[in-house]
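Lab notebook page, bench 4
Experiment: in silico fold of construct C2
Operator: M.H.
Input chain length: 83 residues
Purpose: comparison with the prior construct
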Amino acid sequence: MKPAKTNQTYSNRVLRAEFDDDWKTTVTRSGYVKYTALKNKARVDLILSDGSTRIVLFPKNGYVLVGSGGTSHFSKPHITIIP
């Protein structure tokens, strides 16, 4: 695995996201599902549309917004690990 910091803050290539137990889920007024990290190194495992995978780590209070069109928005900073 090689860690890679990335400046990408959104993706429409996420097919599936699996959040560990360190997240709180809410729905915003605008209809986004918001996942908020409850502690440092909260983890999300992503499967992308090309079949590749990513592990994304967030600090406490980092967040992921998921819209109805399937676009995911990631707060900064976060660390993306390419397995």
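Observations: Residues 21 and 42 are 8 Å apart (CA to CA). The first strand starts at residue 2 and ends at 5.
Next step: discuss at group meeting.
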